[in-house]
Specification:
Layout (H helix, E strand, L loop, with lengths): L18 H14 L7 H5 L5 H12 L10 H14 L3 H6 L6 H18 L14 H6 L36 H4 L34 H5 L4 H10 L3 H5 L30
This protein binds a DNA duplex through helix 3 and helix 6.
Keywords: DNA-binding, Nucleus, Repeat, Repressor, Transcription, Transcription regulation
Main location: nucleus
InterPro entries: Homeodomain-like_sf, Myb_dom, Myb_TF_plants, SANT/Myb
Length: about 270
DNA sequence: AAGAAAGTCAACCGCAGGGAG
DNA sequence: CCTCCCTGCGGTTGACTTTCT
């Protein structure tokens, strides 16, 4: 098709952002809101491509970002979500308010992978590694919840949930639909046959940054409307059930939700 | 104290999906 | 219905920092 480059690469900066660039970007977004990333750099006086601006904002400058260490609860939630969703970092990030997909992806690759390996669990398949000596050596059990340690007795803090009513069935993904899934590993058996996700979570408000006062006060433009639409997209949308009975955007959340895993062909949780 | 190795994380790249015209 | 544009996502890279020898 001949995709046009996202920007004039010859006149754009690359690499680390300077404080001045950050300030320009923040100031522009505060004044005009997010969106239209392609034209933003020029409008904001930045010699960056739109993608770079978006990334910088999403991963670093957004005011609602939570910086700092992940808690053990965060770790376990990420592990469970990864077992459920695979490398869908944006979806996983959506369940961890204030965290970005990039941050979680990095954290997974640098910390959690090792943590799982030390437990004798394959980070990709979430199944015990053959031999399982690592787990035995580390003194950790892999018997419960597909290798996950039993949840701590203390109640888990409230978390957003992927809430799917019991009567919802995901469309069976075709190989072409899901062929790019990077979940990897063998599909001979369910990845987490006895996975007890313990996701006693609930959908929280979208964690999109606050819109600009000006934008909120004035009649929304189509762009702003689009932003608002995006901001209210629920996880049902991501999982392909938006608009159906499962979608909590339309109806109050009924009780008795459960997870369904659409990622592995022909297999559901 | 210096150099090497390992770890961390911000940023880039290319692709896919959705929507507008 | 088709084409093109824009946005978002996931994988990867490379610079920087920390730890080890």
């Amino acid at each position: 098709m001949g995709r046009s480059p996202c920007c004039e690469k010859a006149h754009t900066n690359k690499g680390a952002w300077t404080k001045e660039e950050d300030q320009r970007l923040i100031a522009y977004i505060k004044a005009h809101g997010e969106g239209c990333w392609r034209s933003l750099p020029k409008a904001a006086g930045l010699l960056r491509c739109g993608k770079s601006c978006r990334l910088r904002w999403m991963n670093y400058l957004r005011p609602d970002l939570k910086r700092g260490n992940f808690t053990d609860d965060d770790d376990e939630l990420i592990i469970k979500l990864h077992a459920l969703l695979g490398n869908k970092w944006s979806l996983i990030a959506g369940q961890l308010p204030g965290r970005t997909d990039n941050e979680i992806k990095n954290y997974w690759n640098t910390h959690i992978k090792r943590k799982l390996l030390s437990r004798g669990i394959d980070p990709q398949t979430h199944r015990p590694l053959s031999g399982g000596s690592a787990a035995a050596a580390s003194g950790l059990t892999t018997s419960s919840t597909a290798g996950f340690p039993s949840p701590s007795p203390a109640p888990r803090p409230a978390r957003p949930v992927i809430a799917i009513p019991p009567n919802v069935m995901f469309a069976r993904p075709t190989p072409s639909e899901d062929g790019h899934s990077s979940s990897g590993g063998s599909t001979d058996a369910p990845r987490c046959p006895d996975l007890n996700l313990d996701l006693d979570l609930s959908v929280g408000p979208p964690c999109s940054p606050p819109k600009t006062p000006a934008a909120a006060a004035s009649t929304p433009t189509s762009q702003q409307q689009q932003q608002q639409k995006r901001a209210t997209i629920c996880l049902c949308y991501h999982l392909g059930v938006r608009g159906g009975e499962a979608c909590s955007c339309k109806t109050a959340l009924p009780a008795g939700f459960r997870f369904l895993r659409p990622l592995e062909e022909g297999r559901y949780i």
